[in-house]
Amino acid sequence: MKVNAQCNNCGHVYEVELSILTGKNLSHFNGDFAKTNYCYKNGKKCNENKNSNEPKNLTEEEWREVFNYAEIRMDWGLEDDSTLEEFKRMVYAVKFDYVNESPGYVGDFYIIMGSAMMMPLFLTRNKEGLLETEKLME
Ligand SMILES: [Zn+2]
Q1: pTM exceeds cut of 0.90
Q2: How many angstroms is it from 41 CA to the middle of ligand 1?
Q3: Cα(110) to centroid of ligand 1, in Å?
Q4: What is the pLDDT at residue 24?
């Protein structure tokens, strides 16, 4: 049985199989909503990863997502016959597992920058897991 859970460590809201919540990681459960002491990200407890603010490389799948993202295609003037390899030579890209001070867990955060010193594009994921452009505070 799956229940909704929120991680007390990083604020991440997720669905979890009730049977894997044990006394150690479960801090509160009211019958349908669980509070957990930590969640798992990439197979690691998120609280073991707390200071993992290092930049990460995009996976091939993430490169493809960025390449197919409408705003990127427009900004970089990508044509139907543009290739991912050409695109990779045009941009600088980095990923962070981002936690905001408020409201908390953000998750994938991408910075995509061109070679012309224009403003970089900041991308995060929405609730459906799709990329969206992040408007940062000024
Ligand atoms: Zn967590």
Answers
A1: no
A2: 7
A3: 20
A4: 73
